[in-house]
Amino acid sequence: MTARPARALLACLLACGWMGAAQADAQAGRAKARMCVVCHGELGISVLPNAPHLAGQPEAYVAAQLKAYRGGARSNEIMSVIAKPLTDAEIADLAAWFASIAIDAKPPK
Ligand code: HEC
Fold first, then answer.
1. pTM (2 d.p.)
2. Cβ(75)–Cβ(82) under 8 Å?
C-alpha cells in the first residue's frame, strides 16, 4: 500500500469526523426556535422594530453571534440571557434552521 490512499483515508476520517461533530439539525433548530418567535418571527422575519431578521442569515454568522452573546463578547440585555443556557449543539441547530430559510430580496419600487 502506498502512502497516497492511506493519506486520503486519513483526510476523509478527519474531515468526516469534523463534519460529524459539526453536523447541525435544522429541524431540531426549528423546534428550539419556538422560544425566538415572539421577537424574531415564525420564519425569522422579525416582528419587533429592534430585533433583527434571522431568516437566511449565514449559518456561521448566527452561530458566532449566539456564542458571542453567551460568552459576553457581545452584550444585549435580552440576547445575553437567551443565549446563556444554549449548548454548542443547540446553537448549531438554531443557526442551521435560520440559514435554511429561503429569503428573496427585491429592489425598491
Ligand atoms: C424578547 C425578544 C427576543 C427573543 C425571545 C430572542 N431574541 Fe434574538 N435578538 C433580540 C434583539 C432585540 C436583538 C438585537 C440585540 C442587539 O442589538 O445586539 C437580537 C439579536 C439576535 C441575534 C443577532 C443577529 C444579528 O444580526 O447580529 C441573533 C443571532 C439572535 N438574536 C438569535 C436569537 C435566537 C436563536 C433566539 C431564540 C433562542 C432569540 N434570538 C430570541 C430579541 C430577541
1. 0.85
2. no
76 in contact with ligand 1, CB cutoff 6 A? yes
> 24-100 maps to which CATH number?
1.10.760.10
pLDDT tens, residue by residue, 25-66: 999 999 999 999 999 999 999 999 999 999 999 999 999 999
* Residue 16 near ligand 1, beta carbon < 6 Å: no
CA distances from 94 to 4, 70, 107, 108 (A): 39, 14, 29, 30
Per-domain residue ranges for the chain? 24-100
Using the mean position of ligand 1's atoms as its centre, give its distance from the Cα of residue 20 in Å. Answer: 27
Ligand 1 midpoint to CA 78 (Å): 7
